[in-house]
Amino acid sequence: MDKFIVTAALTGAIHTPTMSAYLPITPDQLAEEARRAREAGAAVVHVHGRDPQTGRPSADSAVFGEILSKIKNKCDAVICTTTGGGFGMTVEERVKVVRTYSPELASLNAGSLNFSLHPLLDKMRNFKFDWESQYLAMSEDFIFPNTFKTLREFSHYFSQEDTKPEFEVYDAGMLNNIAFLLSRGSIKKPIYIQFVLGILGGMQATVNNLVFLYNSAREILGTEFVWSVCAAGKNQFRMCNAALLMGGFTRVGLEDNLFLEKGELARSSGEQVEKIIRIAREHGLEPATPEEARSILKLKGLAAVKF
Ligand code: KMH
Ligand code: ZN
Q: Is the CB of 232 under 6 A from ligand 1?
């Protein structure tokens, strides 16, 4: 039976508390969500930090440490920490989690792009917290910085900690950035790519774009890469389904999509994990366990983390 990796992205830095009461914010909520997603069949959980009181995306090291240790105490899933962080965080703040906690896996955004959420404000009126509207509004003028200098520095820290980069690729140019890093010896194959579609500033979440990106990756990396798809918003399941048919892996979770069905909020990322596994089984695919994911992604093991 072919195995595929399901990643559950639990909270992220896109959605704000007013958008869904189900969005996990505190370390305890995130640990429970990780357990729930693992129980549903996820092998990897992708985590961001949030201020436990206000839900604002946070790079606070102590908050991240509490989240990581609570998740690790609750389940054996592979933990992929973000180094994307949230709007306004410095690159030093973003990568601190790798240097401090040495996770098995962490996101490494493979290039800069406009990354905007301001249209979400069109449908929002009363906010639970003051920070929400200015956070979303500021994104209209936000460029997500991932320069060749930060790519080199982040790659150095990742290899120092033996943390596997999950390269977040939003467009084809970023595949060229990965090829450049390979040519400079900053990173090594095999490469793990998360194709990220549907973000305002990146490529649209269409099958055509996914096939194009996959073929571009094949031209540059040959077969020495494995990949997953993360589609933001309403196309999440459609794109994950396409990835399954293409031999790719899938990422679901409230970080990128708050809904289970059109007009129905997902009560947890675990519900979305169950849904994509139900679809996959129709294609004769079984979800990988965390241990199988560690061997597919060549990870260092949970015993080697520093949390
Ligand atoms: N939320 C995704 C669109 C990261 O955390 O480094 C992008 C993401 C990047 O997850
Ligand atoms: Zn993320």
A: yes
